[in-house]
Design goal:
The protein has 30 helices and 29 strands. By secondary structure, the protein is α/β, with parallel strands linked by helices. Strands 7, 8, 9, 10, 11, 12 and 13 form a 7-stranded mixed beta sheet that branches. A 4-stranded antiparallel beta sheet has the order 6-5-14-16. It has a 4-stranded mixed beta sheet with strand order 27-26-29-28. The longest helix has 29 residues.
Length: 909
């Protein structure tokens, strides 16, 4: 059977669409339950339905896909379960913006119509991110795709809430919450993002009743003075001892409030006197509980002042702040104003400044879940990579507070609680109740709040597999194997999944958590639209192809180090794809007679008894007989099996950068630059068909093995090439590389002596080529070279395989000896104790070449000095990201190496 060759130029767009369609049509991603075999399972971190593929998604899903594809090729029952999150606040904001364009609000159309419109939006736009993941090559089992508000998942959420409520782990209470005046909802503590902002510290007089004395209180938020119900001091603060129990007059409003003593107050902070606003500060709320203080709320849910604010009723909070400062100043109550920088909370969704706000909310007790979740990690049932994130997990666990799980929005899981309008009974049930369980009334009203999105997401590893039903999928694929996610949702999601998995499934949800890096721009800055430094993965895919993007991300995914991404890096890995394509094309172009020669040779070899030996060459490279192989063959097979082991180890250690580097170096350097070149003489000669067949067999086997090793990283190009080479031998035919066997290393093929000998040949060859390059001598110009070494073993290697040096360095006259004297006007180099002399007579104009080298040396020394000064600059070392510093150090090392070579050649002249 004659193989197809490859087009001259690789076109990723033609290849990618074709093969993804083929994979889906043939159900290669669909997981099967195989009793007796241990499955490998990943649940995808569900992207929001409002989302569009960004570099964080691209990195996260590329790394997941690498691991999934490897396990699938290893023959494991492999499930990568996909899905999307309903993203309550984010999705509601999108639909509300659509309504605003029509001049409407959600209140105008009502809850039911708003939910209908949101579902319509979801059906129209919610699958964009899924289509984009497919473009990335994600090999998810799309037949099992889930959505956090589909019918069976919603049933799981209701079961979760109802069970926890009846176990006494969910309660309803008034408490200070983080309130977003833009989204009109409460936020959990970890949904508030704190930013440093410039502000002021205002010192205000609180006059003591019936006295000219006053207590000075400092505050950053004068508008909350209107809600003060006490002034607190430390009980041992001598300055205020006589004031405790007295009354002060609230500025502006004139309300009388007590002076109380409380251990929470720090005498060293500010004036040592604290204004207590129980309705607008969580610490003040607790002080208020201890002292039975009134809770006066002065804000509306929209962030405006209410009637309790007196003359400021109806004002925006910041407008009121200005008015109050002006009034305090006019009344002589403003002592001073000091500028300061302080941390201010913002909504993680819309970036609005949040308000501590007193409201009735639903909470989940967290302490009962903490112990088992900590124990699971401490005992090694769950491990974090990099390990540094374990401390982050523990820090949060040991300082956990009850979780506010209710949200005042409409899109989401409406809390399954009903209030009896006649007796105030609360009925919590999975199904809609028909009457009150206490008074039998039918006058019931459902809670209007919905559950926090993270409440439903916490069930993801088992609800997606069918819980609360005991499905076959749940029994077989849970617990899952690996979670790949980013550090910013360790609290939001990872910790809560561990808690819920242990509580409901009595087992961990996953055994390994890999925390991937952040993707930044090439200077280490966070990507943002305002900076204009966002690199859109879809644009990159369009320009360079999916495989180039995937391999770029994997090659930079070193555990614990952020990725500094640049188009230059992506272009470099696009060139790697082209290198693979061209190398494969060369191999295929030189196999036109491969099958015919194999058939003819098998007939001849059968009589000689060597049939078994050569017949295996087309099947497994591991089974070659060493007697058939020359040094280059033994070397390439040794290198192939060594990197196969190393790639396996690197992927298992989640060091994707190391695995990528190993494959890159092998394919680009060992295979394409060296082995293919060394195989050419055997391919091009026609006399010895057996030798040609051996070279062809090795090229095919090494390429097949390497393609399978590379496939999880670059799935599209490897499938395209692999499909061509599978026509070579019937024993290698598979439907797809997706289900081809993962390469296994044969340690018997690892040959340290061959690698050492070949390393010597490579060093000498590279040195000769480098001399030619430095001196401006064309690589293809034949030269004479003398190699001098007292080491007899090295001379034997050089003599035995001198043809390699002659072939690859274009040496027409190679002299090897132990006592060779350097000829006059010779270029000189030393590699592995071997002196290398290249006589230059007739090759270059000595004087002209000296001038050229001196000029180039001066320029290179100037560049090196500039780089050296940069690295000596403390400001550069302090401000630049580690990767930028490393890049500069590597550049200096290159300059220094070039300087040494130039000086060496100048001396030789």
């Amino acid at each position: 059977m004659i193989q197809e060759t490859l087009p001259k130029v690789y076109n990723p767009h033609e290849v990618e669409a074709k093969w993804y369609k083929y994979w889906e049509e043939n159900n290669y991603f669909r997981a099967k339950i195989e009793r007796g075999k241990r499955p490998f399972t990943i649940v995808i971190p569900p992207p929001n339905i409002t989302g569009s593929l960004h570099m964080g998604h691209a990195l996260n899903n590329t790394l997941q896909d690498i691991v999934i594809r490897k396990h699938r090729m290893q023959g494991d029952p492999t499930l990568w379960l996909p899905g999307t999150d309903h993203a309550g606040i984010a999705t509601q904001n999108v639909v509300e913006r659509q309504l605003a364009q029509e001049g409407l609000t959600r209140q105008d159309i009502g809850r039911q119509e708003f939910i209908i419109r949101t579902w319509k939006w979801k059906e129209q736009y919610g699958n964009r991110i899924i289509d984009q993941l497919k473009r990335l090559g994600a090999s998810c089992d799309w037949s099992r795709e889930r959505f956090t508000m589909d019918e069976s998942y919603s049933k799981a959420v209701r079961r979760d809430f109802v069970q926890l409520y009846h176990e006494g782990l969910i309660y309803r209470d008034k408490y200070i919450v983080n309130w977003c005046p833009r989204c009109f909802t409460a936020l959990a503590d970890i949904e508030v993002e704190y930013k440093e902002q410039e502000g002021n510290l205002y010192y205000v007089k609180y006059m003591v009743k019936d006295s000219n004395d006053y207590i000075t209180v400092a505050t950053t938020r004068p508008e909350t003075i209107l809600g003060d119900t006490a002034v607190a001091v430390h009980p041992e603060d001598a300055r205020y001892k006589d004031y405790v129990g007295q009354t002060v007059i609230l500025p502006i409003l004139g309300r009388e409030i007590p002076v109380i003593a409380d251990d929470y107050v720090s005498p060293e902070f500010g004036t040592g006197a604290l204004k207590v606003t129980p309705a607008h500060d969580p610490h003040d709320f607790e002080i208020g509980q201890r002292h039975d203080l009134e809770r006066v709320s002065v804000f509306t849910p929209e962030g405006r002042m209410n009637k309790e604010a007196g003359p400021y009723n109806g004002m925006d909070r910041y407008e009121a702040r200005k008015a109050i400062i002006k009034d305090l100043e006019e009344r002589g109550l403003l002592v001073k104003v000091e500028p300061m920088t302080h941390s201010v909370g913002h909504c993680y969704r819309c970036d609005t400044t949040t308000e501590p706000y007193l409201s009735t909310q639903w909470f989940m007790l967290m302490q009962p879940f903490v112990g088992p979740a900590i124990k699971a990690v401490e005992e090694g049932l769950i491990s974090f990579t990099p390990a540094q994130w374990t401390k982050t997990y523990f820090d949060w666990m040991y300082n956990i507070r009850d979780w506010c799980i209710s949200r005042q929005i409409w899109w989401g899981h409406q809390i399954p609680a009903w209030y009896c309008k006649d007796c105030d009974e609360i009925i919590v049930a999975e199904e809609v109740p028909s009457r009150c369980t206490k008074c039998d009334s039918t006058n019931l009203e459902q809670e209007s709040d919905v559950l926090d999105t993270w409440f439903s997401s916490a069930l993801w590893p088992f609800a997606t597999l069918g819980w609360p039903e005991e499905t076959d999928d749940l029994k077989y694929f849970y617990p899952t194997s690996l979670l790949v996610t980013s550090h910013d949702i360790i609290f939001f999601w990872v910790a809560r999944m561990i808690m819920m998995g242990l509580h409901f499934m009595h087992d961990i949800p996953f055994s390994d958590v890999y925390i991937h890096a952040l993707v930044r721009d090439e200077f280490g800055r966070k990507m943002s639209k305002s900076r204009g430094n966002v690199i859109d993965p879809l644009d990159i895919i369009e320009e360079f192809g999916t495989d180039a993007l995937r391999f770029t991300l994997s090659s930079m995914a070193t555990p614990g180090r952020d990725i500094f991404l640049s188009r230059e890096r992506i272009e470099g890995y696009r060139n790697f794809a082209n290198k693979l394509w061209n190398a494969s094309r060369f191999v295929l172009m030189n196999l036109s007679d491969f099958t015919e020669n194999l058939a003819a040779d098998l007939t001849k070899l059968e009589a000689s008894g060597e049939l078994g030996k050569l017949g295996k060459l087309t099947r497994e490279a591991d089974e070659f007989t060493r007697a058939d192989l020359e040094l280059a063959d033994r070397w390439i097979l040794s290198r192939l099996n060594r990197i196969t082991m190393q790639v396996d180890d690197a992927i298992e250690a989640r060091n994707f950068a190391e695995a990528s580097r190993l494959i890159y170096d092998f394919l680009w350097s060992d295979f394409a630059d060296w082995y293919i070149e060394l195989a050419k003489p055997r391919l091009y000669q026609k006399e010895d068909l057996r030798t040609r067949l051996l070279a062809q067999s090795l090229l095919v086997n090494v390429l097949d093995h390497t393609l399978r090793l590379l496939h999880p990283f670059m799935p599209f190009i490897t499938e395209e090439i692999w499909q061509r080479i599978t026509t070579i031998s019937g024993s290698m035919i598979r439907e797809s590389i997706v289900v081809a066997p993962w390469p296994k290393a044969n340690t018997a093929m690892i040959d340290a002596a061959a690698e050492s000998d070949m390393g010597l040949i490579q060093s000498v060859t590279s040195s000769i080529r480098s001399i030619k390059s430095v001196l401006g001598i064309a690589l293809t110009r034949p030269v004479k070279v003398l190699l001098n070494t007292p080491d007899e073993n090295k001379r034997d290697v050089l003599n035995r395989d001198s043809s390699y040096i002659k072939e690859l360095a274009w040496v027409e006259n190679l002299v090897i000896g132990a006592n060779i004297t350097k000829p006059e006007h010779s270029a000189v180099d030393v590699e592995q104790g071997i002196e290398i002399f290249m006589p230059l007579e007739g090759l270059v104009d000595i004087e002209e070449e000296r001038r050229r080298l001196e000029k180039e040396l001066a320029k290179t020394e100037a560049d090196a000095e500039k780089s050296r000064r940069k690295l000596a600059n403390p400001q550069f070392l302090e401000k630049a990201a580690p990767q930028v510093v490393d890049k500069e150090k590597a550049k200096l090392a290159e300059f220094d190496d070039k300087i040494a070579k130039l000086k060496r050649q100048l001396e030789s002249l």
